Fold this protein.
Amino acid sequence: MATLNANIPSGPLAQKWTRHRNESRLISPANKRKYKIIVVGAGLAGASASAALAELGYEVHNFVYHDSPRRAHSVAAQGGINAAKNYQNDGDSVWRLFYDTLRGGDFRAREANVYRLAEVSVQIIDHCVALGVPFAREYGGLLDNRSFGGAQVSRTFYARGQTGQQLLLAAYSALCRMIAAGQVKSYTHTEMLDLVVVDGHAKGIIARDLRTGRITRHNADAVVLATGGYANVFYLSTNALHSNATAIWRAYKRGACFANPCFTQIHPTCIPVSGEYQSKLTLMSESLRNDGRIWVPKRPEDCSKHPHDIPESDRDYYLERMYPAYGNLCPRDIASRAAKKVCDEGRGVGPGGRGVYLDFSDAIRRLGLAKVQERYGNLFDMYREITGEDAYQVPMRIYPAVHYTMGGLWVDYNLMSNLPGLFVIGEANFSDHGANRLGASALMQGLADGFFILPLTIGNYLATVHPSQRPSTDHAAFAAAEADVTQRLNQLLHCRGKRTPTEFHRELGRLMWDHCGMSRNRAGLQSALRQIAELRDRFWHEVNVPGESTCLNQALEKAHRVADFLELAELMCLDALHREESCGGHFREEHQLPDGEAKRDDERFAYVAAWEYAGPDRSPVLNKEPLVYEEVRMTTRSYK
Amino acid sequence: MKVTLKVWRQKDAQSPGRFVTYVTPELNPNMSFLEMLDVVNEDLIRRGEEPIAFDHDCREGICGTCSLVINGKPHGPHRGVTTCQTYLRSFKDGDTIVVEPFRARAFPVIRDLIVDRSALDRIMWAGGFISVRTGSAPEANSLPVPKDVAERAMDAAQCIGCGACVAACKNASAMLFVAAKISHLGLLPQGQPERWRRARAMIEQMDREGFGACTVTGSCEAVCPKGISLEFIARMNRDYAVALLKGDSPVRAAAAL
């Protein structure tokens, strides 16, 4: 069994982070430059961590599979970033941001981590402004805010509908500065394919240059994974097409525990699926729920009518009806389930009856067309390009889609996994969002981890190891890991079956969406487990990967990622099956209240499920980290 | 619908390339252009042939990874969108569509439709940042930025770094890309201390990378998926001239630390 010590500092919640900073181990400037740190990924977490570690004087090696660090998927985040600045004078505070985030996560996140996140949030805004992020401003020149789901205050900072892009460019520019200074070595087109563990410590990675196919070994004193989430296990998601789980999955298979893998987020406002050929789903920012009203016809027979022909009295603004206190701004898991419910009742609109209206006509009347255009213009443009419809004239049609994964590698308060020397930040770890993430909190977490938390906490580990003892890349562990990678790639190339990697991926995605998606039940999960094993078996016999491994080969890249998804999917279903309760995005049909709301079971499941790899053909071991709330009381969420 | 594709295939930078013709399977007009290429590639893989290599990732027009010159135009027929947001309803059944990589001396071909755009990153390293150490920033609202200035900076900051401006330019100039970054930071009060040094350093790196000069034909603006205005080039030229007059040597980041 793995030893899981969360290393939460003692003392009152509000003083834990300060105390931890005061008590953390420091490394002198002269010694910092002797340490070498690998950072995999350059999204908000990876780019900010690389830059901040380099500013401190560490030698940083940054790896991305993109052609430039500026392309990581954080770039696609639209709506905004939360921070407890209380610029609106509407009663916001660090405590409220903390509590909203913890409650939004349905009390399945670690209290101390979430509090720290809220605390650090204010520094992020200061730093991003200094880096030149052109946040939206009021006429007086000061920063503007908008509202997001799960909160009754306005605390979201934004840059039109491209907040993620602007924050990523800021983190990337900080990274560029450190590359120019020679403190960061940037490897582009280079994908991590395995983690190297020496005597129980993470000491390097095996990577593949995607242009030349060359496999390389890289050693370090610590490895930081900032490789994002695994939503693409569902094939169709809002993630970028190359987003994948390989880095964290390989780390899992080398001994890092995988926490709460079944906690996935289905985002309520995405453009509905239109056909079999579809390669991804596109999100329409949650910020649209500030001014848009969601409805479906009251009667199924009205669904085929033009929305303009359905009078006000025949419309069901179901979120406003079911959750009057939060209305259209209730949390994502709740809004998604409600959309599924009305569509299951036969009241969905659009092809296949899988859609609900997001209507701006009231907002246009209230604010004027110009204001709506200023706030959401680029989103309306995007909607028109994809659907060919003008949402200023007819309501948008939206439906939930897989968007984010709250689960990830287990980390302690220092953001270190149970494997010493392996740090995991951003979406790749599990710690801050519990069973459901609130909107505008992913950007906050990525930058908090990368700019402000990891650069300090990593010292607690580095102070215990000496750079002179860093294993060389000739060490047997490197050779063995490289051999594993080569063997896996060769096996994929030698199958020469009849089916493409994408066909298997699509099949896996459908399985996961049906059985491990918005609602789950025992029989479905058990059947999914059987089918995944069978699909995986077929994959290794029937997949066809043309070409060779010694040059750019996108089919091989894809096949390798799908192979890992086929294993991860199994763990997700196991986790969903074992968690006999409903919480946040994890809705077990067997566990619901009479009104259909999630029925949480704090007696039995107030813990983090951290799964430990036990070898091929053996069930993973379940480790439990109890969730102890020192200062808040677990309550039943109500947004009514 | 079905279309005929003439696609540029090239094994690597050293090998010669050529056009190969493919007749697509039955397509749906609601497919994106890249989903059409996915379908063609699936077919190729099933037949054991190597799929067409092309760059793509987010497929929502923001990451700047996708490229392609479609019928002679970077990012296809429409203004203000990337290739990944181009849909087949913009083409007709039976069309022949020519698909090429972004071509420029500073963008060598890696394979088929994929080119190496790292020159743009190196321009950024030369000065595309505000030098601020993590933890040292003042309170965000201590520095008011007039709304119109912030909006103007945002107009420039929207650049996704795709390189279409370079591919469209007969001189393969990267001026629109560089101007967007210089203007984004140079418009904001936070960017003032390094304004002149930044302009000079980035422009000199741009020249070293082998991009051509600007002759103000405006093709860059016409193909820019984010509609970045040519006016920013004028602004950059002015900043560059001022920087030269000021006589500051372009201090690279390393020296500034």
In short: Chain A has a mean pLDDT of 96. The domain at 476-600 of chain A is CATH 1.20.58.100 (Methane Monooxygenase Hydroxylase; Chain G, domain 1).
